[in-house]
Amino acid sequence: MRPDTLPPDFYAFMIQAARCPKEALMLNNLNVRGISVSPKLALDSIQHLHPTSHAIKVISQLDPNPAAIPCYLPVYGTLHFVPMLLLRTQHLRKDPTGMLSKTTKATLKSGAFLATFVTVYQYQICMHRQLLKTGLIGRWNSKYLYGLAGFICSYLSIFIEDKKRRSELALYVLPKAVHSLYQIAYSHHWIFKMKYFEVLMASTAMGIIMEEPDVLSSFVRKIMFQFFQKN
Known about the structure:
The protein has helices spanning 8-18, 22-32, 39-46, 53-60, 74-87, 89-94, 96-134, 143-157, 163-187, 197-211, 218-228. It has 3 domains: 3-61, no CATH class; 71-161, no CATH class; 165-230, no CATH class. The protein is mostly helical. Residues 73-185 form the Transmembrane protein 135 N-terminal domain. InterPro entries: Tmem135 (IPR026749), TMEM135_N (IPR031926).
């Protein structure tokens, strides 16, 4: 609902991983806030996506104020295999079959986690559209719907991932979530602008990591050891 509060590179990664056109998200963002969506803007947003004739027909007949906008492995492979090749060379030489098997399994689990996350989220959103289409629910398209869908798909998919990776994922997304919440709160004038907020967040995160190194994987600890040694 507020992609402008996220780091551009992280938002671009989310778009690529979800295979969801950012134009569709922009239109949905306008729709949720009650802003009219012109059919021309909707058509222009899908032209580069090689739309089917059915998609063009649906979009061209789109109401300016619709109830809702219609629905329309590599990452984790790098994450698991590159560290093995760079930091676990000796283990790879001693037991190549075991290491490759273990890394492949971890890659498949991480890929399944991400695929399940995206699939469950999209299924919920499209199910909402179908309920609107059949008239089983009224014209309701609240921004809180997307937050609830995100919570549900996170809860259902996180248990697919390896236990050791769950804490890493939490540490990865938590600072981004806090930063986004801060930006939203500031834009609504709920809080004042904090000078050097990014520095404060980075310092807090590093303090937590230094005090609780056990929450990190052995790979991350090895990386940090190269920079900070035992300190």
